[in-house]
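agent> fetching stored inputs for the LLP docking request
agent> found them:
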Amino acid sequence: MTAFTYRNGTLCADAVPVSDIAAQVGTPFYVYSETRLRENYRAFYEPLANLKPLICYAIKACANTAVMRVLAEEGAGADVTSGGELERAIHAGVKPEKIIFSGVGKTPEEITAALKLGIHQINAESIPEMRAISAAAAALGVHAPLCLRVNPNVAAHTHYKIATGEMGTKFGIDAAQLEEAMGLAKSLPALDLKGFQVHIGSHLYDYNNFREAYGKLADMVRAWRERGYDLTRLDLGGGVGIPYDGQTQAPFSDYAAVVHGTVGNLGCELAFEPGRRLVGDAGALIARVVYDKRGAAKRFLILDAGMNDLIRPAMYEARHSIMPVKEASSDAVAADIVGPVCETSDLFGEAYLLPGVGQGDLVAIMQGGAYAAAMASTYNGRALVPEVMVSNSTFRVIRRRITVAEQIGWEEG
Ligand code: LLP
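agent> prediction call returned; pasting tokens
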């Protein structure tokens, strides 16, 4: 089932007309489908089930605790990248033994907090970080369960700002330094090296990139086992894409086949860190057209949502699908769909056809579950918009609007 469909001519999230939500909470707002979140988790888990995967939701994609709770109920753990995300995951009821701590710049305080909780795994991305993890673990009298994030030097076909698997990016330990890192993992007594992690980028649609990276990882495991290392874990990161406007994506079963074919027979426990694939299409940003501006050269539909609410188009040239909330079949005059923020990059769709949509009407910007609310800001003095969770025929506000008055309060202590 898709989360967002027309029923009786109006766009619904599950069974709830989004116009009903708009009437109650005002616009703009984010809406998520609980049903879709659960379906996405199962669709990820099932083709990999025989490998007994640990699926740690990369909560950076959407860190709302209600979203996390739904996925945790399905069995997901969490991949966190800061002390703040760690706190959120614990608050949402994720068990420490299902938490992986990623990121290139974990501070000693964050590492200590994670070790005290007894999390499943810390991924180290550099030699100085390995030393910091060891020092924190030694001070607590524990062993740190460690994976080394390796940089496999694999190109990922995605936007250059979210490719992470090539030499020269800040991510992972380069092959040339692995010898030193492996020696250190053995010599520092508070480190308990379990295996390797790899994450070559986000929103990948060419699964051959994964094949190459996972293949290299499998070779590494074999080579280091021969040298006496007891490697029992592989963390395959995230990165599986979803279709945005006009895009297609190979079926998830193809990705699962890559996993099985490259690392399936190593006898390692496997972990995954999906973000976008679990939440991306489960959310939408609902906005209202403030003005239908007919310029001399172009028509603009100016929304009450802007790049501060959804920065992906401005930041990655992303194109999300846009749908009218009231279904219409009439011919449309193409318009640029823009926000109110004072930047030309505040543009959601170019020469877009939205039949039946004019001033005062509602529109839905789709694929709004991942890196959407999570990356929002208050730029241009704007409120942070509400988030709403729909469960079949009911909905609830899972984050209320954070008003400008409240924001002023932050500055005045
Ligand atoms: N694991 C690590 C170590 C990561 O850095 C990321 C994403 C993930 C997992 C989850 O990747 P996913 O499955 O969601 O592709 N803001 C950008 C995406 C940034 C991704 C950052 N790291 C966007 O809106 O496209």
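agent> quick read of the result: The mean pLDDT is 96.
agent> awaiting further instructions
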